[in-house]
Amino acid sequence: MFGVVQDMPAVSEAEYHLVEQHLGPDRPAGLVAHVSGPIDGGWRVINVWHSEDDFRRFQSERLLRAAGLAAQAGLDPTKAARFTALTVAGDEMPFQ
Amino acid sequence: MRQLEYWNEHAGESWAENADALESINAASGADAMRRARARPGEVVLDVGCGTGATTLALGRAVAPGGRVTGVDLSAPMIREARRAQAELDVPGIEFLEADVELARFEPASVDVVFSRMCLMLLDNPAAGLGALRRALRPGGRLLATAFRDIAENPWLPLAVIGAAPFIGALPPLPLPGEPGPFTFADPDVPRALLQTAGFVDIEIVAVDTAVTPSGSPEDVAALLIQLGPAGGPYRRATPDRRARARQAVAALLGRFVDDAGRVTLPNATWTISARRPDSCQHEGTR
Questions:
Q1: Which of A6, A15, A35, B212 has its C-alpha lying 20 to 30 A from B72's C-alpha?
Q2: Pick the residue with more confidence: A12 or B287?
Q3: Does pLDDT of B286 surpass 50?
Q4: What is the rounded CA–CA span in Å between residue A47 and residue A32?
Q5: Which regions of chain B does DSSP assign to beta strands (E)?
């Protein structure tokens, strides 16, 4: 599995939800877990993916598009996200 | 994505087709290093990541008469354009080489100056690349390079990708930390450590702030910036209507950089990196 921490300095909860809104309702293929919350002066997203390819596909096909639509709706696009890749050990939990 | 694939299949054609216009944006990122290189008549220069050849031709004029400049780039379309420009301008002592600098075998201790505008941070394996360049330099030979500082100091750089993304196809994957990308050298300790490990001495990294003032309307500038970066390939393949919408969206995001006369001025924050191969091989240890 592959984890990504996405720190967005100076991004508010409302701005985060603006991007999320433009991602649409479909669960991204390969996404195992998603949590997000405030950090000092910004917002952090932690996602765990089945594979690095799943993350890269999501970024290429959906995340940048959503960020672009959010920018049109008022998100300051210069508040760039900083990504940190994580190595995630273990398998998906065997229960629903 | 490896750089060979990116610069041949995604960005190279855009850069080659818009060479002159893109040079109006890129020139500011190399001017300070070009001055500090002090290339002199008769010297031998290696221009790493020469792109469409503007820096190679400028260096060729500086080392004439009697000097030689080899421009190296792994992008076939850009080397083709560089050779075309060379044939047109006929600057003597120039050759272009389509090669990956990390794998190329340069003649050892044959080069007086290694020059590189905005390329070293894009190497897949910068340690290997810098080692190869150090070996190519004569003892005492100098390296001059430039790289972007932090994204916060170059706030226009992400605008083309973000603005265009909703209107064009999927973009190539963007680099994660540690992968080659425009901001790999944003922390100057990164190139400093790489240069030290590769055996360079007298390493100096200086912040340079310039203003990029491309000609044309905000939408013209938007088109250039889209083609300069990872959105360039998908933009070229998009329908005319989608290309127009992408340009308009990016132009709107550029609004903060447009003055009352409608002119776009972009703050460009770079490092000029200088270093030297030690004068004597005795000081190079076992590298």
A1: B212
A2: A12
A3: no
A4: 8
A5: 44-48, 68-73, 94-98, 111-117, 137-148, 201-212, 266-276
Q: What is the mean pLDDT of chain A?
A: 86
Chain A residues within an 8 Å CB radius of B170: 57, 60-61
Q: Is residue B135's pLDDT more than 60?
A: yes
**Complex ipTM value:** 0.84
Model confidence at B2: pLDDT above 80: no
Contact A77 B159 (CB under 8 A): yes
DSSP letter at A63 equals I
**Domains within chain B, CATH numbers bracketed:** 3-278 (3.40.50.150)
Please give the backbone phi and psi of residue B263, each rounded to the nearest 5 degrees, phi first.
-95, 135
Enter the tokens of residue B222: 């938007």
Contact yes or no for A78 and B159 at CB 8 A: yes
List of domains in chain A: 2-87 (3.30.70.100)
Helix/strand/coil for B211: strand
Please indicate whether, in this complex, the C-beta atoms of A67 and B151 are within 8 angstroms of each other.
Answer: no
Q: State how far residue A86 is from chain B, nearest Cα, in angstroms.
A: 11
